[in-house]
Amino acid sequence: MTRATATSTLVGLGTLGAAGAFLVLDPAGPTAAAWQGAALGGGAALAGLLGAAGAGGALLQRLAPDLLEDERGLLHATVLGLLLWGLLGLLLAAPGLLSPAVARAIPAVLAAGWLARPALRLPRPPAVALLVGAVVLLPGLVDALAPPVDTDELYQHLALPSQILAEGRLVGGPLHPDGSRPQGLHLVYASLLALGGQGAPRLFHLLLAALCLEGTRLVARAWLGRGGEVAALLLAGSATYLQTAGLAANDLPAALAALAALDAGLRGRALPLALAGGMALGVKYTAGGAVAGALLAARLPWRARVLAGLGALLLVSPWWLRNAVEGLHPLFPFAGWPTAPLHPDAPGALGLRFQYLEKYGAGRDLAAMLALPWNAVMTAQLDGFRFLGRLSPAFLALLPAALLAALPWPAPPDPRGPLARRLLLAALAPALFWALGPHWLRYLLPGLPLLALALAAGLPAAPPAGPPRLARRLVLLCLLAGLPANLGPQLQRAADRLPAAMGHEDPARFQARLHPPAASVAWANRHLPPDAVVALLFDWSTALVDRPTLLGSVEDHVPARHWLLTRGPHALDDLRAAGATHLLVGSVRFLPSVYPFLSETERQATMQAPLDQLEALLLTQATLIHQQGGTRVYRLDPSPSP
Amino acid sequence: MALIVGGGAGPARAAVGAPGVAIPLHGLDHACLDARYPALAGPWVVGCGPEGRVDRALSLRTGVELRLPVPAEAPGLAEGLLLLVGPVAGVIRLDEAGATLLDLPQVRTPTLAPPATDGARGALLAEDRVSAWALEDRVRTTHPAHPVGWYPPALAGQVLAWVEDGGTDGEDVWMLPLDEQDPAPRPLSAGPGHQRHVVGSGDTLAWVEPGALVIQDTRTGEARRLPVDTGFSAPPTLWGQVACWEERPAPGPEGARDGVDIRCSDGLDAAGPGHQRWPSRFGPWLLYREGDQPWLRTAADPPDGAAAGALAP
Lengths: 642, 313
What we know:
The structure holds 2 protein chains of 2 kinds. Chain A is mainly alpha-helical.
């Protein structure tokens, strides 16, 4: 051993040892329980990624080995592995065989793919990319380690996997409407939950968020050269991308799959495009625009593109079939809510809409649609119905150049024009799809990497000096200008959640602080009978309730309103017949100011009437046994004798 | 101990209400975070401000309105007195001249329910224990117990009572004799079903059992069971031996039900269209709510709280 080697070894051991000891011994550092949770969740997340990449890599080795040839291989292998994971989960859950033990075993089964020795090259991001990634994803790590309080996690992304594990099978129908969506990703989360607790799916999602950033950088570099890597910075500089990074969510996994579909299409590989497209659609229907974009941009004959699209739909079709078999509309709960009253004295749910598009964004008339890019970037609110998110201003700044690059003018045309046109086409599809749907920026997430790539394609090539180089530096300046508004709130949130993530704030108190109904749920968990079944009405704390639950809803509370409107005075009788013994009732108000597009008659009939109906029923058929803030716990009274 | 004087008294008016009449109490119609308020603290109505915390009081005798020196989410109430526990702990005494806060030692332990007070003692429930103490004492004695949260404890005579988690058997009412040298908690009303909503006034306790409201004199142990269907929403309220409670009317001929009404054991009631809920009783006054609007009904004849126990429900 040379002296230099010995010194390096000493420095290496010293720094690692000192850093580790400092973290362990620092009284303000993570508690033993926090370390344990992080290790368990982190271990499960890594095992999951290893399993998905192994299975996906093995399959790609046979189907399209060229996709594994460079660092993008991990992107494609992971997406394919997640698809396999979801399908395997479906096969096991359909007959009711997905017990926690079986769910835990799935990543190990998938990891057997490594036995096929897939020639997978791992990404090796440069130090600066690692640093940027670490900084922007650090708040996500805090999120992942803190107890869950996020609305979508509580009612869906952690709740459904828990219910699937508890039942050993899929849940769905009017009593679990969100369970009737495609559940591929939730089956993945169910495995992770069984393997490493609530931290596991969230840390796994954080890994996918990092992989999506790195995947965008790699795809950009592959197609646009080193300068294209700014596409990844567009994502990293946007709050909408970062705010769910450390949560169990589904927008970023859909984005990851859409990115893989685009890359596969650009490389002329129809089958991987179909598989990744199917994966994206199976995670979230809002990826439809991004998948369409990938198909439009693909370097494939039209026939192959159509077949790839059909293949993607085929992968989602088991979920439609499942709904049909259960007597539901294939696209339930997005469509097919029966409106007819189920009892003669019930009013029925005529006029009930699944979603009010008018609520979101900055309007839907022609002027508002034309101003959408400006409004979505410049006037969005992180916590309001006005786009509910935030993007880097660079998204707007690069738009004119991206449009120009795609034009065959001015002469001589940009030699990268055809590629820029393809990427613009790939981005326009999800952008238009989004514009037609709810104007929440997170619904744009599945197509956001495609949009970032199209915008990066408009940047001039990177010579060593001159105006193009200056232009690139100005883009960085624009990204920096957007950082305080985009990264600032993430850091602020992380600072608030850090004590809970480190184990220094009591989890129950933390949850009750950020999600007040959690206090009532904690009471219910402690005092309700072990065999209680809790129906959640106008509340979304499903994942926190450690008893079987029914219903549960957010925002417009369609499931609860539908139940009350179609069942009228028999709503609680029917819940009792469905097995409910207790009710968790939230406090909501459907204010006219939030629904200005509804006439007073409509608002009264479809929103206020069910609330009034419930209050009347509670007074006569249930017993209040706890109340804290706006959340009440009721025991359903015994059914009156016939 | 610090003495803090609250907001000055508003202009004195005449007594609030009139015998035999129910009137709405405007100015106290902000919904409280805890639905058990507004409520009566003796001849005072304490109610909430726009923030939903108890921060004001109205004298029913003189019409004087007071702002409390500190707002509270769920204080314990006695005649002319509020007991606050938690990071801000103290006793607020209500007087026509103003409200004064007398600091008490902080209660750092999270409490499970509003505290109780009879004006001389305080009681609170915490995880796995109950506690009762004389208000002037700086030390609180605790006793092991498993109280269910939300239901406040009750003080009556020399008895502390609370609702205990009976496991699969439902809730039970337990008691602690405070006059014993080394008191041990014991069941007061247990068994199958849910025994809960215990309240106290003077020497009397009342609680809800399946199909009945029980009123017990703690000095003699004598108890009366009123066969009423109550406890489905608000707890009963007790003034001396007079109890008032919410009652669900029997189903109508075709299953139709009228609204919830309030009955008192001395014959006073609040009935009519809609729901009359959340009763609170002191002397001739019955405070209740229709929606978020508090109403005050005054008995036509001045009742006798001690003698009222003999009245038929």
